[in-house]
Amino acid sequence: MVITITSGKGGVGKSTSTANLAIGLAMQGKRVVAIDFDIGLRNLDMILGLENRIVYDVVDVMEGNCKLPQALITDKKNKDLFFLPASQSKDKNILEKSKVQALIADLKAQFDFVLIDSPAGIESGFEHAMLFADRAIVVVTPEVSSVRDSDRVIGIMDAKSQKVKDGQEMVKHILINRIKPELVEKQEMLSNEDVLKILALPLIGLVPEDPKIISATNTGEPIIYTQSPSALAFQRITKRILGEDVPFVEFKTKRGLMGALRGLFA
């Protein structure tokens, strides 16, 4: 299964979510590859702690400069998790539809899950990252700008994904990240209900703000290996991806800013 993890804007935790969900699936015994499609701005390698082991990248594979097995990096802790890095020096416009399709098909034949870390926004890199996906997880923070930009991204996926063009449904879910319950209580941040009502997609996970994520990223030790609140959240999301019925952890919230925002999403 190919799952694109995407967002409408940067800085919402998309790469962090990709890394931790890839590890979570591998910890459940699935054979997983995580691909960084953010050409020129890679950081998934740093979050996974694999930045010093990169020799070839995804562009090298698609341009025929190396074979796929040469570019795949095996995770340090889990033999079922592999990583295919983005190019740091190439332009994002170098990606070609036919080459992306061939790469995804090759990986899909070898792995249970192919997780694509999509560039934020709606440029060509994003379109290639979502084009051949079976599912999408849209990472959003409970802020007006993030939700509004994600609304645009969802619309593009509904119009341009290959699955939709083939007359099938592209399953999409919302992951609400960096939730700060105290700000929701003060009505300074959108509530979960507000976000879901605006985006009109099912929820797959709620991840609270967690200061430990910064140190985890800096040390290359993904947060899911800990028992922090965000780690437990990613573990629950992993199980939902695998089809388990896992209850959502309730945050103490009340109505947010929905009334004032209705006109922005008309």
Automatic annotation (TrEMBL):
It holds the Pfam family CbiA. It comes from the Bacteria. SUPFAM superfamilies: P-loop containing nucleoside triphosphate hydrolases. CDD domains: MinD (cd02036). Residues 3-223 form the CobQ/CobB/MinD/ParA nucleotide binding domain. InterPro entries: CobQ/CobB/MinD/ParA_Nub-bd_dom, MinD, MinD_FleN, P-loop_NTPase, ParA/MinD_ATPase. Keywords: ATP-binding, Cell cycle, Cell division, Nucleotide-binding, Septation. Interacts with MinC and FtsZ. NCBIfam families: minD_bact. ATPase required for the correct placement of the division site. Cell division inhibitors MinC and MinD act in concert to form an inhibitor capable of blocking formation of the polar Z ring septums. Rapidly oscillates between the poles of the cell to destabilize FtsZ filaments that have formed before they mature into polar Z rings. Belongs to the ParA family. MinD subfamily. PANTHER family: SEPTUM SITE-DETERMINING PROTEIN MIND HOMOLOG, CHLOROPLASTIC, SEPTUM SITE-DETERMINING PROTEIN MIND HOMOLOG, CHLOROPLASTIC-RELATED. This is Septum site-determining protein MinD. The lineage of its organism: Bacteria, Pseudomonadati, Campylobacterota, Epsilonproteobacteria, Campylobacterales. The gene is minD.
